[in-house]
Design goal:
- By secondary structure, the chain is α/β, with parallel strands linked by helices.
- It contains six helices and six strands, in the order βαβαβαβαβαβα.
- The chain has helices at residues 13-23, 36-46, 62-72, 87-95, 108-119, 127-136, and strands spanning 5-9, 28-33, 50-54, 77-82, 100-103, 124-125.
- The longest helix is centred in the C-terminal third of the chain and has 12 residues, at 108-119.
Length: 137
């Protein structure tokens, strides 16, 4: 089976290092970026299967960067990784075409599932955010 190619995008080097260690056994990490502009450049050059994108990127922010990527490379799946346990942000992320919304505090298994589901054209939302949708919906 072809290895899933992932581009890691977070402006905190420690988080990038942690994510790399967490994911490199199961996925091919094709590169890392610390801001939205660099991510767009790298995504277009490297054509990963998935971009794992921090919602809180410096200019342009994560949502705006995702919107740009959707227009330029709609074949690349986007999975947001965030600290925001927020139904409205999760809804907006999915509305603009993200395949996943995973909380940084979630178990590693959720992140792995989100990446795998995203390449199959399916969505994934962290369980705790899903429970909030159930309570508010």
């Amino acid at each position: 089976m072809k290895s899933i190619r992932v581009l890691l995008v977070d402006d905190h080097p420690t988080m990038v290092k942690t994510l790399r260690k967490l994911l490199e056994k199961d996925f091919e990490i094709v590169g890392t970026a610390g801001d939205g502009r660099k991510m767009i450049e790298m995504a277009l050059e490297l054509n990963p299967d998935v971009v794992l994108l921090d919602l809180n990127l410096p200019f342009p922010g994560g949502l705006d960067t995702a919107r740009q990527l959707r227009k330029m490379a709609p074949n690349i799946a986007i999975v947001f990784l965030t600290t925001h346990e927020d139904c409205d942000l999760a809804t907006e992320a999915l509305r603009i075409g993200a395949a996943g919304y995973v909380l940084k505090k979630s178990a590693a298994s959720e992140l792995h599932r989100a990446i795998r589901r995203s390449v199959r054209g399916r969505t994934f939302v962290s369980a705790s955010v899903g429970r909030l949708w159930t309570k508010t919906g």
